[in-house]
Write a structure and sequence with these properties.
ATP-binding (chains A, B); amino-acid biosynthesis (chains A, B); Carbamate kinase; ATP binding (chains A, B); homodimer; 13 helices; Aspartokinase (chains A, B); 21% strand; globular; alpha/beta; VC0802-like
């Protein structure tokens, strides 16, 4: 069986929801449908989630909410009309929203937002289930209350193992299951939203719980591109990509998936297919545990700016067992994660996302490294970009690093850092931010232009 | 003033000791002479230190030592005869050795070796001072007892700050000071030898203590070569090299200096000149804090085998603050130091010298990384070499990494790891051991052949 998740634009209007129905009907193995809240119908439109945030903000500010609630309801009413549904479903949604507003009257700010925002997916799932039934598709709305059990960590909501056990029963359902994305409930009955990855994570959890053969993720693009199309002109489409290639490319320009969302399917080796609701016959991009890497060495190139380099040098550093560990511990105590730690015998650089730093933190780190590690020299430099060349086939291709470095040299940019792990799925370069786009173009030219797409 | 250290072959015979005298006479600023024990006079010869080890082993085995002592004495007698010294000095050395044998009769194994071995330098210093005086050079033997105070760590003997204070008085000596290398005394009067760097470290300590303008290190080669002459045919001579270049090159094929030996002069920025006792007019190699790096980007290329790679992968590793630190901590708790830690988003490799590993350690590490860090995959691979391209000028040269990687690609070898720190004094490559020599030759060709030497 397949689990199909539809993003906001795929369920934004009656027209789009009809496409969803037709997609489900066209393949009998599509048994579980995860839906987002209605998204934008056109570029100037407002997402239902944003309309619900307006309602939540009014509640918190103790301002009237009626107009704002009406705006939300209007979207459902438009869709119900377009889908030929009667007013009953809209009445139910109206009552649900009014009840939520009452329920949160004295709740914490966080709960107000969670409960209001989650209604977007929840009510859309109810309407889509109603529509499916109205056209003769036996369907059933299932609430996350019935099994999607999450942990109690407010900042990092994740499904707990109990969820997988309970949701696995859905594989035996006689009807098509319509399940709202984006939220779950703690064992104490508290609603929690997935901060990162939204509805994608719900789909991945369900796919893992029922042991789906495929997790189809319907969005509004035909595929994932091999480079950021905002920088590179008409980049090649990626037909097949492995989980770890997807991860390594997640730096930037590859925002189709939030990588944490994939975790449940990665653990079980379930393949993912990114498809376009508006062009369902296009093959899309397949994300899988393994793939035939013989066709092209490089799968994609991504780039991201906003990196800083912490440089530390000390004579005979590599003789000192524990130096690197102590340095990383100082960063850890400041809550800082890092990307890479290239090193010489007597120096080490730590590549850090700059947003994690501020002057006070930098000064504390500089002082501690000087005083506790007796470093000869320690400093921060800012304004770097990381360029990552990714491909499962890279490890079989001699001379690839040479080609990449030569392409970068053609732009006149100096390479500040090179990092190639022994896995060889990725090769990353640190460069000055100003060269980022030019290097991305040159690397794309190097690895893709000669190959027919 | 200059401190001059002479290695074993430079003081192996009367003929060589005469060269030393002539070198000291030719420059009035050469005021402190540090000497090794007599080394090999020809390739089949035995070093006095090795003869003394024979004596020590006999003492430990409770076997007769007379023949073995006689072999040691014979060397001094030959030298005394060649230098025209009377029997008095040889009598004194004989008594000294006999006294040492008595002193260590009930001592620990370590003390037997230390006391016997140290006599090689000590007695040679006495003889050389006597020779200097015999030809009219006012000279004075100084014992390490008079100031070379070392710490009490048996495994890592180092001079303590008191030593520098006491030895600084030598700068005012009227005579040429002849000082034995290789050993010092603890504050409790215990003799300790320098395990690493031998007499080089004594010279460096004296140079730092008296604030020498130059530390001259006389050996039997004209210079340090830019690559291992056993692999590369007639490599270029290095005229100038910085401390940190020397350090980065210390992997292999650059065994003129043990890098820890340089520490005392590095701290004070005292330049070092490596010269040839047998060709003192050759300029030698100058090791200095800074140098003009504009002439040639690459100073040298070194290579070393015997590396292992610990590979660890885990989905979403880079989101996990503390993962790298915990991994390094596990290694630290096993007493393992590492060279580099190249990484991707979800994997990290730790490059380790293989001699630090054994099956039991590897299994413990694999188990801990799996159980404590919940890694998806963890394994060790062995049989790697590291090739290091070093040069202060590299940071100014665009395309250097490209040239190096291209040269390696020409050998058909796959690059397993690339590490370039932000300092850019060095660029290191991990490759399969079997490609090491071929790559070294190809890189030498790339960076040195086009430049006239």
């Amino acid at each position: 069986m397949k689990v199909c998740k539809f993003g906001g634009t795929s369920v934004a209007s009656a027209e789009q929801i009809k496409k969803v129905a037709s997609i489900i009907q066209s393949d009998a193995s599509r048994r579980i449908v995860v839906v987002s809240a209605p998204g934008k119908r056109h570029s100037d439109d407002v997402k239902v989630t944003d309309l619900l945030i307006d309602v939540a903000e009014a509640i918190i500010a103790k301002q009237p909410v009626d107009d704002k609630l009406a705006a939300v309801l209007q979207r459902y009413e438009d869709n119900a009309a377009g889908l030929g549904l009667d007013q009953k479903i809209c009445e139910m949604i109206k009552e649900d929203l009014q009840q939520r507003c009452k329920d949160v009257a004295t709740a914490s700010v966080e709960k107000v937002f969670d409960l209001l925002k989650a209604s977007g997916e929840d009510n859309n799932a109810k309407m889509i289930a109603a529509y499916f039934n109205s056209i003769g598709m036996a369907a059933r709305y299932v609430s996350p209350k019935d099994g999607l059990v999450v942990n109690d960590a407010p900042e990092r909501t994740m499904a707990i193992s109990q969820a997988y056990d309970q949701l696995s029963a859905l594989k035996n359902a006689a009807e098509i299951i319509v399940f709202p994305g984006f939220f779950g409930f703690t064992t104490a009955g508290q609603l929690r939203t997935f901060d990162r990855g939204g509805s994608d994570i719900t789909g991945a959890i369900l796919a893992a719980a029922v042991g789906a053969e495929l997790y189809e993720n319907f969005t509004d693009v035909d595929c994932v591109f091999s480079a950021n199309p905002k920088v590179v002109n008409s980049p090649a489409e990626i037909v097949e990509i492995t989980y770890r290639e997807m991860r390594e490319l997640s730096y930037a320009g590859f925002s189709v998936f939030h990588d944490e969302a994939l975790m449940p399917v990665v653990k079980q080796g379930i393949p993912v297919n990114i498809k376009n609701t508006n062009n369902p016959s296009a093959p899309g991009t397949h994300i899988m545990p393994k793939r035939d890497a013989s066709k092209r060495a490089v799968t994609g190139i991504s780039a991201d700016s906003g990196f800083s380099i912490l440089y530390v040098s000390k004579y005979l550093m590599n003789r000192e067992i524990g130096f690197g560990r102590k340095l990383l511990q100082i960063l850890e105590e400041e809550g800082i994660s890092y990307e890479h730690t290239p090193s010489g015998l007597d120096d080490i650089s730590v590549i850090i996302r700059s947003f994690q730093l501020d002057e006070a933190k930098e000064n504390r780190i500089l002082q501690r490294v000087t005083e506790e590690l007796y470093a000869d020299d320690v400093n921060f430099r800012h304004g770097f970009s990381m360029i990552v060349v990714v491909g499962e086939g890279m490890k079989y291709k001699t001379g690839l690093a040479a080609s990449a470095a030569t392409a970068i040299a053609r732009t006149g940019a100096n390479i500040e850092m090179i990092n190639q792990g022994s896995s060889e799925v990725s090769l990353s370069f640190g460069v000055l931010q100003k060269y980022e786009n030019e290097i991305l173009k040159e690397l794309y030219e190097e690895f893709f232009s000669a190959v027919s797409v």
